[in-house]
Amino acid sequence: MTVTNNNDRNGVINAISAYVLWGLAPIYFKLIADVSSDEIMVHRIIWSSLLLLLIVVISKRYRVLINTLKQPKLLAKLALTAIFLLVNWFLFIWAINNDHLLDASLGYFINPLFSVALGVIFLGEHLRKMQKFAVMLALSGVLIQLVAIGSLPIVSLGLAGTFGIYGLLRKKMHIDSFVGLFVESSMMLPLAIIYWIYFVDSSTANMLENNLNLNMLLIAAGIVTTAPLLCFTAAAKRLTLSTLGFFQYIGPSIMFFLATFYYQEALEPAKLFTFAAIWLALIIYSVDSLKSRKEKRKLASNEQLRS
User: Fold this and answer.
1) Do 250 and 112 meet the contact criterion of CB atoms below 8 Å apart?
2) Which residue has the higher pLDDT, 303 or 108?
3) pLDDT tens, position by position, 114-158
4) DSSP string, 220-257
5) On the CB side of 307, how many CA atoms lie within 13 Å of its CA?
């Protein structure tokens, strides 16, 4: 029982850390908004790969890495997760650089309930009546924007979908978090380097011609990218997708306040209704989850007293 409690506690700490870091990430990307999205993407991949390699070396995970590289099926799965991660990274950068931080926020508000739905469909996790109602309410929030504006929030749904599927696939893999992320980023690395050399044509492409401040910011993309992902994968191994979804409102909440009050993005009525529906859905789901946990603890304590 003690081991389980420690795992749960570590999972909670990792989940909170991941989503706070993700919520604050737009501040970093706004600092390098003059650099194109594809170029920033290249730096995310390159510096993340180097940082993860350093972590693997320092933590002496050589054997784990070698064993992973000897498993073709596992490598194929990691190649698939790398694709979803690649798309998610680019969508996020594009949204921030093009003043769509509210769309990014909405995407990550949708993501918890999307993860819950994936957990039900693929992992056999069960939802109670109020939790099902919460998922349907979130779906209605998306439909409100479709009817009012005439288009789906593509960026929001893209972010929610790619990251939700990424979390599901990584949840089902038996692999060390650090090694898994290193292999994923390494698979992207050759493409990133080729793209940097042959296709990036900008005044900032040659780091030897940049000032030190800009180069340090570009290199920091590795830390900004890797730190929350490591926390997330560690949390995903210790918590159910339903429980993990409970914490995912932290990041988008920070993004929402940054977009609305700091970066002054326009909050259209249709988007506000969508946000309101999803906020309400998250509240209903969270309250129901807390109530269920209290009931389970009460039953467990009663059983212990009887025994």
Assistant:
1) no
2) 108
3) 877 888 888 777 778 888 888 888 888 878 777 776 667 889 899
4) THHHHHHHHHHHHHHHHHHS-HHHHHHHTTHHHHHHHH
5) 6
CB-facing half-sphere around the CA of 55: CA atoms within 13 A: 19
The per-residue pLDDT for range 253-289, each reduced to its tens digit, is 899 999 999 999 988 888 888 888 888 888 888 788 7
* Contact present, 81 and 169 (Cβ < 8 Å): yes
- Give CA–CA dist 172/73, Å, rounded: 13
Q: What is the C-alpha separation between 19 and 241, in angstroms, rounded?
A: 15
Q: Vertex 158, ends 154 and 161: CA angle to 5°?
A: 135
In sequence order, the 6+-apart residues with CB closer than 8 A to the CB of 86 are 45, 188
The total number of structural domains that make up the chain? 1
- Between CA 94 and CA 100 the distance in angstroms is 8
209/253 Cα distance (integer angstroms): 38
User: Which residue type sits at 129?
Assistant: K
Domain that holds residue 265: 2-306
